[in-house]
Amino acid sequence: MKSKHLTLNIVIALILGIVIGSICDIFSQSGTVKFIDQYFFNTVGQIFLNLIFMLVVPVVFVSIVLGVVGVGDPKLLGGIGLKTLIFFLCTTAIAITIAILLALAVKPGAGHSDLMKSADVSSYQKTLDKQNEGAEAPAKQTFDQTLINLFPKNPIEAMTQGNMLQVITFSIFIGIGIMVMGEKALIVKQFFEQFNDVLMYIISMIMTVFAPIGTFCLVAHAFTGAGLGAIKQLGLYFIVVLVALILHFFLIYGGTIKFLAKDSPIKFFKGFIPAITIGFGGSSSNAALPVSMECTKKMGVRPEIASFVQPLGATINMDGTAIMQGVATIFIAQISGAQLSIVQILTVIVIAVVASIGTAGVPGVGLIMLAMVLTAVDLNPAAIGIIIGIDRLLDMTRTAVNITGDAACAFMISKQEDRKLAKKAN
Ligand code: ASP
């Protein structure tokens, strides 16, 4: 991949997608626009996304195995794992705090109590009621069940269902097995290394051939159906989420690279552009994973660390999602005329951290998990119906933030390990 050209092409495709998609959105009732949207934007975009999705499970499996083998020491692996988890939890808590403070200051829902009576709420309430009509109400996972479910009974089933946490657990065990067996498992190790090379080659090929046109189509399709008009009514909510995302992106990730990794944030953000555009275009942390790992490795992140930290992050670290959930909760409280107490706000922070961990790295799930946060502070989850119309665009933006957080963590840990090794060598 000639990355300089490719990055430029993807950025141009992204901008063109936004412009042409927004124009098409104005004429979204026209038959020609509908045709172009369905048979060109959506079809090409989905093919591109599927091509990347096709690689996600094999890439996660192979790279985590190699990541564990590459770290080479179970103790060091534990240390990296712990650091990763602490980083993920802290940055998510910071993200939601920024979001809540901003929403409390700007009050995007003030004076919009009419929205609560709008048709969107009742139609979403009907959807919720319908879901609950079935004999089995959606089972709430208790903590013990969540723990049990980390361990797959059948790893193949976990892979076919895309249960990333179970795939990660299985991969860690295979990696530890290969690491401990050393020479005896050399062929298995080599198989994984070569399989990884093959996967990386396919990713480069897909990116070189399809990324610009695929990104253009995905973004154009998202904007065509986005109903940009709806943004007007929910404008302040939209802007608060966007500003909180931008603040978190530059301050927290930029700060992490500058002060913890002691490197240049500009170099980091620039090198990560291809992954950001795929995250933005596809609204899926999982889909962006193969490209985002390639980007960080190119920036000098040690492969074993990128391979371990980023798949885990794409599954459990969702700062952008937490930001949306924080702003949405305050917004819904404001339009409902509810006053949240300090205890309730702290509850929102804790539950949103948990909800974002539970959010799968695929489009739209963050909004579904928002119901959990709203219910915890006695707000009506049906109010999600109000913001659902503009969530597609916010999903794109928050996904870009989600994956950048994972990459910043991998970058920081890798640089810190490099420094440790250099100190030892002196
Ligand atoms: N689309 C987001 C992601 O994949 C998850 C969400 O917030 O819906 O990271």
Describe this structure as you would to a colleague.
With 426 residues, the protein is mainly alpha-helical. The protein has one domain: Sodium:dicarboxylate symporter (Proton glutamate symport protein, Orthogonal Bundle). The longest helix has 41 residues. The chain is globular and about 70 Å long. The protein binds aspartic acid. The site of aspartic acid has 16 residues, from α17 and α19. Keywords: Cell membrane, Membrane, Symport, Transmembrane, Transmembrane helix, Transport.
The gist of it:
The protein is 81% helix and 0% strand. The protein is mainly α and 426 residues long.
Unreliable runs: 135-139
CATH class: Mainly Alpha
Number of domains: 1
Largest sheet: none
DSSP summary: helix tally:
19
Quantity of strands, as a count: 0
CATH superfamily, please?
Answer: Sodium:dicarboxylate symporter
Shape verdict = globular
CATH topology value: Proton glutamate symport protein
End-to-end distance, in Å? 36 Å
Give the names of the bound compounds. Answer: aspartic acid
